[in-house]
């Protein structure tokens, strides 16, 4: 038999919604005879969103969802209300959500470890490349011939070579340091992880830290 749950401040969902920006009847969840889940926005002012695989939230009118689809009603996590669809029929226990978050945290930690190795390799290269270039300029007769061909007097060649060496290692070294921005890379990875790290409790909008996820407990709402 089909099941219908009205979602909103005056909805029939098993938890209260007081969040700003959520309508009295904001959306409707229907579970059909084939046990497929459908959510339909009820022309709400601030929208109904579902989370995509990349972590972004997409505004929908009507969409098929899964019990573990992460939903948001209203403008954003700080003011809206967000929860896993499962809470609409199976409220109170957050075990499945915590297990999902634990998987995400493990993926994040593995990615972070890989990234740290990549940063170390890149930093090593950025030290080696300018040194090799500087050595090449001083060590190979080709560069001396090149400078002589430009019309530089023999006694000034070593000064020119030295300047070229300082210039090249400075520019290349600087370029490497700009390109290898380990902190920026780590920040981007963390931001992507945080798109998934919301507390599963519909009444809480806390972004969980990795250690909270490992403890399976939100420090804000204690769920
Ligand atoms: Zn919480």
Overview in brief:
The chain has 223 residues and is of the alpha+beta class.
What would your notes on this structure say?
Helix content is 43%, strand content 16%. The protein has 2 domains: 89 residues, Sandwich (Tumour Suppressor Smad4); 97 residues. By secondary structure, the protein is α+β, with helices and mostly antiparallel strands. Helix 1 runs antiparallel to helix 4 and helix 2 packs across helix 3. The protein starts with a strand and ends in an 8-residue tail after the last helix. It has a 4-stranded antiparallel sheet, with no helix packed on it. Strands 5-4-7-8 form a 4-stranded antiparallel sheet, with no helix packed on it. Bound molecules: zinc ion. The site of zinc ion has 8 residues, from loops.
Bound molecules: zinc ion
The unreliable regions are: none
Shape: elongated
Instruction: Describe the strand arrangement of the main beta sheet, using strand numbers.
Output: 1-2-3-6
The fraction of residues in strands falls at: 15-25%
Number of domains: 2
Would you report the number of β strands? 8
Overall radius of gyration: 29 Å
Secondary structure tally, helices: 5
Mean pLDDT over all positions: 92
- Going by helix content, strand content and strand pairing, the class is alpha+beta
**Distance linking N and C termini:** 32 Å
- SSE ordering: EEEEEEEEHHHHH
Proportion of helical residues = 40-55%
Can you summarize the main beta sheet?
Answer: 4 strands, antiparallel
